[in-house]
Amino acid sequence: MAEAFAPAKINLTLHVTGQRPDGYHLLDSLVVFAGIGDRIAVAPADDLTLTVTGPMAAGVPTDGSNLVLRAARAMGVTGAAITLEKHLPAAAGIGGGSSDAAATLRALAGMTGREVPPDRGLSLGADVPVCLAARSCRMRGVGEGLEPVPDLPPLAAVLVNPGCAVSTPAVFRALAARDNPPMPDPLPSFDSPRTLAGWLADQRNDLEAPALAAAPPVAEALAALRAQSPLLARMSGSGATCFSLHESSASAEACARAVSAAHPDWWVRATTFARTP
Ligand SMILES: C[C@@](CO)(OP(=O)(O)O)[C@H](O)COP(=O)(O)OP(=O)(O)OC[C@H]1O[C@@H](n2ccc(N)nc2=O)[C@H](O)[C@@H]1O
Ligand SMILES: Nc1ncnc2c1ncn2[C@@H]1O[C@H](COP(=O)(O)OP(=O)(O)O)[C@@H](O)[C@H]1O
């Protein structure tokens, strides 16, 4: 029996800087992980099985397409009873499936003594290597280039998903430009959430504009967060989840309460983005 936490992945920035001949996009992204996420438990068994539980289990595939089972197969594991306790919305820009795959690789490595595949899960999804690292990173290439970042201050934050799934390939396809400038190199260091948020405001998520065009509720989520005067509000990944950064946990919790009260059908969570979850 082994367990692993699958934290939500947040793209504080997401610059699309080019495109490979195979169509995949080159990224330059500052990635952090939240204190909330899914949970994976694995136990020895004769066959490979998956049970999905938890408050966000509805709609998550339970067949061989689930990234948890794909991760197990990528490790050559044919006998394991795996439970996925789903807390994160799916297809939401916070890497739920990718983080589940990474946590599965970690848990199965612990249980079986097998090695994680040499590509660190890249063939399962572009976000899997950074989710396997599960710590703040500058992510480049299509997702395989991972570099440590200067110490970031712990960040009080709110995550809001307005309940519409966004197709990652469709959002990439709708980009107006694919050769946008990267972040500065090296990244500066930040002594407070306010300094970091001020710098982030000059950076971008290049997928935000095409996601806003495809999914109007993203604009509503950003407006609801901005009405609470956070340090910054932005979309994560290809959407639709948006995040806000705050001076303090008390301010993040007050923001989450206000957004939840105004939009009881949205997924809203106050959390912390930290260097390690
Ligand atoms: C956009 C990001 C940013 O972190 O996050 P999410 O919105 O998924 O959370 C990721 O790059 C997504 O990673 P992941 O969801 O693992 O992507 P994959 O399954 O490998 O690819 C899904 C599709 O997204 C597009 N894709 C993905 C990554 C990339 N660097 N370039 C792309 O063009 C391709 O159309 C691909 O077919
Ligand atoms: N364990 C999983 N959790 C969530 N979605 C999964 C999982 N395995 C496969 N999927 C599929 O992967 C797609 C992308 O989900 P996810 O990784 O949560 O989103 P994103 O890449 O936007 O962060 C979904 O459409 C879903 O059907």
Automatic annotation (TrEMBL):
Class of this enzyme: transferase
User: What Pfam family does this protein match (any one)?
Assistant: GHMP_kinases_N
Q: Does the keyword Ribonucleoprotein apply?
A: no
UniProtKB keywords: ATP-binding, Isoprene biosynthesis, Kinase, Nucleotide-binding, Transferase
- Taxonomically, the superkingdom here is Bacteria
EC numbers listed for it are 2.7.1.148
Q: Which residues form the active site?
A: K9, D127
Q: Which NCBIfam families match?
A: ispE, PRK14608.1
Protein name, please? Answer: 4-diphosphocytidyl-2-C-methyl-D-erythritol kinase
Q: What is the lineage of its organism?
A: Bacteria, Pseudomonadati, Pseudomonadota, Alphaproteobacteria, Rhodobacterales
Identify the gene encoding this protein. Answer: ispE
